[in-house]
């Protein structure tokens, strides 16, 4: 169907897509803003086109500039990566109208599943368990109040078009609901151009567990296991792992079947992620669906030994899935740490600037997805993630040790990074034992503030290694 792909993105995901395209003998086109003129994805693509100034709305978020770049280079397909225009139904529709293949689901699927209220309705109709909440949009504070009183506090206000924690507020009483409603609506309008909110019952101490699904145009749909994304700050993921420490073979089967059922109910084609909340009794509830490749997809690739991006492109080319459900079993325990240019000691404040020194770890079972180098200047206009550090090992305990070793070798000079907080997370006894939920990181930070001075990381690592010997290894690929 096409022999050249334009990557409508930047950074490590653009490089990741370029690699898979080359393996499939497809030519690649990189687009870049003036701030990314010296970026690696520009260097390694077959062709490149400057699409505007640094501001995202004038470059990476401008459909007209992306389409113009595709037309001038005769690119037959566009891969959106994640973020930017990846879940923009209007952009996907423009691609279709211009006879350019959008590597992703259909515009209608993006539109219906991207609207979180509509997605919840569709999945409930398909038979998936959903979190109790409003029947649709809560247009006014009064409507939100009525719904909150009906389902009971605490509740969670969420933006209909939201993501990454934007337009989201926890409300424990009427006063917080009133403040949160106006703040969330304003933030949603500024972030997504849509102020609409809906309301859900807030589950106490749940885990955030997502299921990777893939569907082709021949009616075949499979799931590729779960990822535990409960380590978050401000509702944004920081560390992910698979298998989830709470997963059993039975629960994986139930969640996987539910994810496939939901995908098939909308005839979903391409890669996607069904996101669930799992409570302490291992009940799971559909939360939302992402209609794109996820940032954390590498741990699934490492655990299951599949190439998700390559499969995504093959499906867009009209080919069948290259594997069946019964062939998909987790073979490794895998962990991903997002290395962001942020200062954990200053509320994760972004720290753009020049990388004056860089050394990355290596060795068996260690993978780095990055797009930075010594002398590279991190621009202030985009997401602060500069690399993803991924490890895999036979057991979860071994994966934790391997990740701590890799983090010790990971040196970034010139800008602040999240490396130090990752070491603390992986050394924390609750994380080591697998007993954590979505409030884990906030609680850990608050505890550090109360205690005051923190022991050196090396001491923490040694203590965690000792603790690991005392807990049951619950990371075997099948079950606890």
Report on this structure.
The protein is an alpha+beta fold and 480 residues long. It has three domains: 4-103, Rossmann fold, CATH 3.40.50; 132-201, Dna Ligase, domain 1 (2-Layer Sandwich); 207-470, D-amino Acid Aminotransferase, Chain A, domain 1. Helix content is 36%, strand content 24%. It has 16 helices and 22 strands. It has helices at residues 11-23, 40-44, 63-72, 89-97, 107-114, 116-126, 141-151, 174-192, 249-265, 297-304, 308-316, 396-409, 419-427, 429-432, 440-451, 457-470, and strands at residues 4-7, 27-33, 47-52, 77-79, 101-102, 155-159, 168-171, 197-201, 207-215, 221-233, 236-242, 270-278, 284-290, 333-340, 342-343, 349-350, 353-354, 357-359, 366-370, 377-378, 385-393, 411-413. The strands form six sheets. An eight-stranded antiparallel beta sheet has the order 13-12-9-10-11-14-21-19, with helices on both faces. Strand 4 (77-79), helix 4 (89-97) and strand 5 form a beta-alpha-beta unit. Helix 4 (89-97) packs antiparallel against helix 5 (107-114) and helix 12 (396-409) runs antiparallel to helix 13 (419-427). The radius of gyration is 22 Å and the shape is globular. The termini are far apart. The model is unreliable at 456-480 (pLDDT under 50).
């Amino acid at each position: 169907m096409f022999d050249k792909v334009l990557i409508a993105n930047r950074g490590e995901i653009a490089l990741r897509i370029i690699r898979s395209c080359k393996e499939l003998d497809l030519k690649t086109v990189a687009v870049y803003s003036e701030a990314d003129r010296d970026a690696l994805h520009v260097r390694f693509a077959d062709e490149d086109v400057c699409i505007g100034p640094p501001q995202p709305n004038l470059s990476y978020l401008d459909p007209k500039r992306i389409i113009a770049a595709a037309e001038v280079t005769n690119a037959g397909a566009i891969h959106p990566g994640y973020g930017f225009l990846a879940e923009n139904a209007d952009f996907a529709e423009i691609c279709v109208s211009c006879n350019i293949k959008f590597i992703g689901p259909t515009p209608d699927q993006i539109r219906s599943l991207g609207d979180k209220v509509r997605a919840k309705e569709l999945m409930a109709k398909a038979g998936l368990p959903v979190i109790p909440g409003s029947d649709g949009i809560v247009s006014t504070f009064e409507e939100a109040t009525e719904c909150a009183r009906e389902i009971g506090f605490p509740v969670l206000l969420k933006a209909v078009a939201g993501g990454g924690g934007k337009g989201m507020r926890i409300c424990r009483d009427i006063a917080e609901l009133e403040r949160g409603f106006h703040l969330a609506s304003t933030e949603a309008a500024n972030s997504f151009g849509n102020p609409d909110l809906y309301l859900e019952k807030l589950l106490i101490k749940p885990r955030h567990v997502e299921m990777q699904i893939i569907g082709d145009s021949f009616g075949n749909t499979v799931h590729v296991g779960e990822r535990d994304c409960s380590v978050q700050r401000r509702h944004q993921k920081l560390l992910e792992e698979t298998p989830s420490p709470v997963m059993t073979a039975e629960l994986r089967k139930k969640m996987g079947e539910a994810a496939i059922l939901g995908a098939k109910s909308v005839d979903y084609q391409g890669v996607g992620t069904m996101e669930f909340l799992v409570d302490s009794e291992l009940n799971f509830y559909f939360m939302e669906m992402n209609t794109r490749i996820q940032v954390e997809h590498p741990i699934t690739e490492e655990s299951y030994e599949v190439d998700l991006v390559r499969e995504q492109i093959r499906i867009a080319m009209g080919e069948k899935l290259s594997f069946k459900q019964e062939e998909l079993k987790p073979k490794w325990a895998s962990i991903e740490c997002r290395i962001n240019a942020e200062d954990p000691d200053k509320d994760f404040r972004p720290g753009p600037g020049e990388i004056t020194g860089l050394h990355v770890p290596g060795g068996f079972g260690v993978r780095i997805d990055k797009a930075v180098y010594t002398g590279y200047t991190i621009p202030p206009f985009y997401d602060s993630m500069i690399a993803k550090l991924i490890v895999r090992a036979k057991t979860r305990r071994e994966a934790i040790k391997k990740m701590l070793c890799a983090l010790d070798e990971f040196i970034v000079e010139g800008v602040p990074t999240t490396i130090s907080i990752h070491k603390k997370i992986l050394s924390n006894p609750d994380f080591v034992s697998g007993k954590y939920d979505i409030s884990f990181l906030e609680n850990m930070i608050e505890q550090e503030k109360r205690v005051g001075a923190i022991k050196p990381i090396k001491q923490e690592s040694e203590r965690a290694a000792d603790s690991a010997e005392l807990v049951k290894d619950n990371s075997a690929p099948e079950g606890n």
